[in-house]
Design a protein that fits this description.
Length: 278
């Protein structure tokens, strides 16, 4: 995880020659859904504003891009059950100086279509809602970003493992229960991470959290059974509403909870705070 983050950050911080004028262009691309056959979807976006929403309009996708046509070109390729969306960088580096404004990507993805979804984005402000999609696999990777990920409605398919890899970021993930996943993995580098465990948990689940340097806030809804193991003596843990038994911290209602989540936490430096919310 650290190696991948360093490679991405190095690429984003390479500076080109100064003085390039930006030639902005806006395009919209879309495709109707071809039934309900499974689709492998890969979304890649480097820098700017990034927004994803679900749609019930019979579309596989609709993408609107605002980009500098001298530096980027849009990507929208579909065939044999594979969809690739985003932009390609025509240069080896990205100018991120104060006088350059970022591009924008607004993406709609169709509900009711089984999707293996992979998203990669770099220096972006991301606002992503995956609510009500039919995700059969999910992998999300961020660079130096400010990202809010929400699963506002229950995922229409059962997920094996949902994976989130977070670089130097401010990262918020809401409604984890709506992922409909057996296992959730969050691997974070440096920054502030907030995880909301609300949502409609369909079964007991396992969660793996790896945190480098920063703060981690875990927000649990009342009534969810939580068991947490912390594998680090250098990270402080504010375990409000939990009691320690052996190697684990347990929520007070663990024994009687209808749904239970077991969390394996490995944190290097920083702080972990537990909050209970209604």
């Amino acid at each position: 995880m650290r190696k991948a983050f360093l490679m991405l950050t190095a690429g984003l911080l390479s500076l080109p020659a100064m003085g390039h004028a930006q030639n902005w262009r806006t395009v919209t691309m879309s495709r109707q859904a071809d039934g309900v056959d499974p689709v492998d979807v890969k979304v890649k976006y480097g820098a700017g504003r990034f927004k994803v929403r679900p749609t019930d309009d019979g579309l596989l996708y609709r993408m609107q891009l605002r980009y500098d046509e001298d530096a980027f070109e849009p990507v929208a390729e579909y065939g044999r059950g594979r969809l690739e969306l985003g932009v390609d960088n025509l240069r080896r580096s990205i100018n991120i100086g104060r006088n350059r404004s970022g591009g924008e990507m607004d993406l709609l993805l169709g509900r009711g279509i089984p999707m293996d979804l992979k998203m990669e984005f770099g220096a972006v402000r991301a606002d992503v809602d995956l609510g009500g999609l039919s995700l059969t696999d999910l992998s999300l990777s961020t660079g130096a970003s400010e990202s809010t990920i929400d699963v506002s409605r229950l995922n229409g398919s059962r997920l094996g493992t949902a994976r989130f890899e977070v670089g130097a970021a401010e990262f918020t993930l809401r409604h984890l229960g709506n992922l409909n996943a057996d296992r959730i993995e969050v691997d974070a580098g440096v920054g502030e991470v907030t995880l909301w465990f609300n949502g409609d948990w369909q079964r007991d689940a396992e969660v793996s959290l790896n945190m480098g340097l920063g703060s981690l806030e875990l927000r649990f809804p009342e009534g969810l059974g939580v068991r947490l193991r912390k594998d680090s003596f250098l990270t402080s843990l504010d375990s409000e509403g939990m009691v320690k038994r052996g190697d684990y911290y347990y929520s007070l209602d663990w024994d009687d909870a209808e749904r239970r989540v077991t969390i394996d936490l490995d944190a290097a430096f920083g702080s972990v705070r537990v909050l209970w919310v209604r």
